[in-house]
Amino acid sequence: MVPLLFLILFPFLAALGILVIPTNLARKAAGYGAAALIIAASLYLIYANFTSPATYIEVGSEFINELMLAGEVLMALYIIAKSYQFGKNYPLILAGVQTMVLLYVELGMPHNVEVQNNLFLDQFSLLMTFVIGVIGTLICVYAFDYMRDFHAHHKEVKDRRGPFFFILFAFLGAMFGLVFSNNLLWLYFFWEVTTICSFWLIKYTKTQEATDNAFRALSMNLFGSLAFIVAIYFLAAAPNPISTISEALETGSGFILLPLALIGFAGITKSAQLPFSSWLVGAMVAPTPVSALLHSSTMVKAGVYILMRLAPLYQGTTPGMLLSLLGGSTFLLASGIAISQSNAKKVLAYSTIANLGLIVACAGVGTYEAMWAGMLLIVFHALAKSLMFLSVGTVEHRIGSRDIEDMEGLIARMPRLAFAMLIGIAGMFLTPFGMLFSKWAVLKALIDANPLLVGMVAFGSGITVFFWAKWMGKIITQTRIHKIEEDRIGGGEWAALYALIALTISMSLLFPAVSSLLIEPFVSSIYKMNVSISQDNVMIMLLMMGAILAMPFMMLYYGRERKHLPHYMGGRPTTPGEIFAGSAGLKRELAMSNYYLEAQFGEKKLMGIGVVLCAILMAAMLLSTGSGLIA
Fold first, then answer.
1. pLDDT single digits (tens) 203-245
2. Which of 122, 197, 281, 568 could form a disulfide with 171 if both were Cys (CB 3.0 to 4.6 A apart)?
3. Is residue 122 part of a domain?
């Protein structure tokens, strides 16, 4: 219990300490110390409890409930004040309405539901502890040196690193509180804290673009928050009130479909599924650590976390079927949009939206195999995507661009960063890294559930190969002789990148143990069925891992002593200046570029289709519930 409470409370205390420290050097030292404690506590909690059954913790305190209610009202007042200041009507109205519903649930309901076991711990919580406490904290470590370079490159942006790191660490505390909360009202409180944190971080630069995108993110997430608190109202007003996640799962067939659909809606908005994906794409205006934190270990993972928690209740229901179709459609269309993007952060954004769609599809199907696959996806996506975001942020500071076309020859210009990016990209789509194996598990889970989803996942996965291979090819393509440009990269950045490389590789090697020790026991406890990996598949994957890792390691080692030969263009060698004689004797400069197929996979074209299709599916999900119960 002590490590669990420590992980919830300490990040908030560390955030306050970092906020009041006056100098950046002392702030960095305090942040590194706090990060080390959070990682150590996370690993200890996992080690001490991975073999234990679910543990329910009694933290019954009326004072805590009142404190959270006061905090929710203060957050609503902050949103209303900021919305009024900037003339934004939607968040103002939404914050006011959801606060009134919350106050009625807390103070005006005809009965008072007492919850004794407000916190709980199980294997799923431990899996999320790794994602938040290790991956999320490494992003915070990276941020200290990154933000120093950020302000060196963006002198027009006021240096507000104190509040920035305060919000980063508070974000971690809120996520720990969210995944350990059994009480739905406590979970809702931490859910709202993540919304406020993301709003502030997105508008960090305070440009007009950043402010507009921050309010877009706020508005869309407040729609989900309103749906969440209305769902809690229906659950509390039921003949047999439901106030905790454990009660919801135990109730099973008596669970009301309408609140289940409303929570599904909340999860869709938080995880940036179509038609709400624009807020996550807009969040790319924020500094890179914000993008990495939102995409890999905090904000969007909160959405899929609650959906996966309730996945057994979606199984075999109409809302579950429609939710899975919405997730599958998002995966297919967002993957297609990524093909047309040359902005590296946009490729990562749409890839994130797509892969979250896979997890949403698993939650909607709700079978034991789907839950197993979805939990694998959460971990491996967080690892590979955080590594990619942080690598892109560092590369952008070195070359002054985040365009993929400008990353040509990184293997020679920045060999260590290129190595990190190659591992990150391989982790997203190559066998036997965890993401591809997770997608195989998704297909296996969907074959019996919904053939249409199988087609979406198969074609979407084929598309991902196209845009990841383009990017990987650009990194290892070298048309000119380059000097190494990796100087002046901070030690904190390297530490985070090396740690994420090691974790991406080791987790892929050790995933059978992760599955057998954490995921399989959890799935078995929920469904009373066993799911496991055959030993033959494990051996094949280990052999493939060795083969696939040989390429970047060989490039890193042998690339230092290489022989340069002139390129041949149509049989004509290029000059040292990369000039060759083209058709009609014209002198041309050697240039190589990827195809982006804008006409076929353009953002506007596919986004329009996706918004309409997924809006229809979402509306059908809400309208299909009536007042029925799960059969």
1. 999 999 999 999 999 999 999 999 999 999 999 888 888 889 9
2. 197
3. no
The answer as to whether 547 is a domain residue is yes
Whether residue 221 is contained in a domain is answered as: no
For tokens 């998704």, name the residue: 442
Q: Residue 494, Cβ neighbours under 10 Å: how many? A: 17
Distance CA 284, CA 307 (A): 25
Cα separation, 626 vs 275, in Å, equals: 23
Domain count, the chain: 1
Note whether 281 and 358 are within 8 A (CB).
Answer: no
Cis-peptide into 432, omega within 30 deg:
yes
Strands 579-581 and 572-573, by their bridges, are unpaired
Q: How far apart are CA 437 and CA 449, in angstroms?
A: 19
Q: What is the DSSP letter of 23?
A: S
- Is 235 inside a domain boundary? no
Alpha carbon distance 168, 136 (integer Å): 9
Q: What distance lies between CA 164 and its chain's CA centroid?
A: 19
Tell whether the torsion through CA atoms of 232, 236, 239 and 242 is positive or negative.
positive
User: Tokens at residue 413, please?
Assistant: 């210009």
**pLDDT tens across 304-335, in order?**
999 999 999 999 999 999 999 999 999 999 99
Domain containing 334: what range?
Answer: 321-562
Amino acid (1-letter code) at residue 15: A
Tokens (6 digits) for 242: 């439901």
